[in-house]
Specification:
The protein is mostly helical. It has ten helices and no strands. The N and C termini lie far apart (about 95 Å).
């Protein structure tokens, strides 16, 4: 009788790809459930059902509901923000060009994708769960503020910027983004906002203020 050959083993890369695909399905489902039910009322059973996996599968990735939200924040926003930070800081370009690159990223990759729903979720839930605000600040906000200060300091060092306002208050740069989040969530149907136009106008005004009177 011929010897039965053992089944070929799947390549580790294929197994990791499948694992990451399942995690992504869980994260997508978690965002849906958190938005629909609120973080308090959402259950891991609901997330598992939406993702088409058993509840035990979720525990292979995270130990709790809060850890699931933390993973969602880190994976979907923290990671991309960290990547764009490195990319922008490595650019051999004026500070204004770096600011424009950052605004383009925020417009296309945050406000223009489902990532905006994660930010809205944090805005809704952070008051009841301060630890969520701490997680978001650590994974996202701190990186953004560091990047903005770095760009502003470059502009001052090269003489491109006359004002140090952005070094002292980097929050001013992203304030319209927060407004856009709130406006589109609550008032867009009643009073549509041209988010892209507003951000372009804000950046132009900010450049005028930072550069000072033209010679």
């Amino acid at each position: 009788m011929p010897t039965k050959r053992p089944a070929p083993r799947r390549a580790p890369a294929r197994k990791e790809e499948e694992r990451q695909a399942k995690l992504q399905a869980i994260l997508d489902a978690a965002l849906d459930v958190f938005l629909e039910k609120g973080f308090t009322e959402a259950r891991l059973e609901d997330v598992a059902a939406r993702a088409g996996v058993g509840k035990g599968t979720i525990y292979l990735y995270v130990p709790s509901k809060q850890a699931l939200l933390e993973t969602l924040i880190r994976s979907e926003i923290g990671g991309p923000i960290g990547t764009i930070e490195q990319r922008i800081l490595s650019l051999d370009a004026p500070a204004e060009a770096k600011l424009r690159a950052l605004f383009s990223f925020l417009r296309k990759e945050i406000l223009g994708t489902r990532r905006v729903d994660i930010v809205r979720l944090i805005l809704i839930e952070a008051g009841r769960f301060p630890e969520l605000a701490e997680i978001y600040h650590r994974e996202v906000v701190a990186t953004g503020m560091r990047l903005l200060r770095g760009i502003a300091e470059q502009g001052i060092a090269t003489g491109e910027f006359q004002s140090d306002a952005l070094v002292r208050f980097p929050q001013l740069a992203v304030a319209p983004g927060v407004l856009a989040l709130l406006w589109t969530a609550f008032f867009q149907r009643l009073d549509p906002l041209d988010v892209e136009g507003m951000l372009d106008t804000h950046l132009a005004l900010m450049m005028q203020a930072l550069k000072g009177p033209s010679s």
